[in-house]
Amino acid sequence: MEFVSPEGLRLDGRRPTEMRQLRAEIGNVAKADGSAVFEMGNTKVIAAVYGPREVQNKSQQMSDQALVRCEYSMANFSTGDRMRKPKGDRRSTEISLVIRQTMEACILTHLMPRSQIDIFVQVLQADGGTRSACINAATLALQDAGIPMRDIVTSCSAGYLNSTPLLDLNYVEDSAGGPDVTVGILPTLDKVTLLQMDAKLPTNTFEDVMQLAIEGCIAREYQAVGMPPGFMIDSHGKGIRSYNYVPDRYKVAKMQGLLNGNVYSNPTLVS
Known about the structure:
Elements: E1 22-26, E2 34-40, E3 43-54, E4 67-74, H1 90-104, E5 115-125, H2 130-144, E6 154-161, E7 164-167, H3 171-174, E8 180-186, E9 191-198, H4 203-225, E10 231-233, E11 240-242, H5 249-259
Parallel strand pairs: 4-5
Antiparallel strand pairs: 1-2, 2-3, 3-5, 6-7, 6-8, 8-9, 10-11
């Protein structure tokens, strides 16, 4: 199957380095301490955060840091006619673990000893990239809850089909069986907190696909709020608050290029 036409367009009309349209909204669940809905194309995810609060199981309580728990699930209607796996299956358990470990890398758990933070993530519509969408939704929900973090986490995936690196795979591309790299980064600290790959890739090709995914993470942070990184929409739409991250002009230029489907060839522009 041809996933990239001779004109350089994918099945959904995007260019290889073009992301799907993003939409993010926070404060959706009234009884949660923090919540967010994150959409990328036809993929839609909701996340809710409760805590920090008293540890329910005292045997799990830690005297030097907070306990972070995560539960991932998919709504029965999220995949249409595709097969729906039961709650608690192996994939759900794995993704719950991935989200928890990724969030633990950014939460300042040592500031909240003997407490518990619960993260619930549910996929409402699945059209590829659900893992990245869940991480982005969880990050926004943690921010909405006022959980102290050393940095936010942004996540994006990239694949390799028809000898072409593709950014932000949809369901058709993701289910083609090609290599798929999912990356999560801490943009301010310039650190990778998540790296997963399905299938095998030659080293030089892997570096290109991973770099594209990292660039997608940075651009996703920019596009999700429609403004330069460093600012988030207030939970009640009353204004804008900063989380102290101001990118240099090269990063902004590179983000704007990615949003227009262009990738700057010089990787040293983003450090």
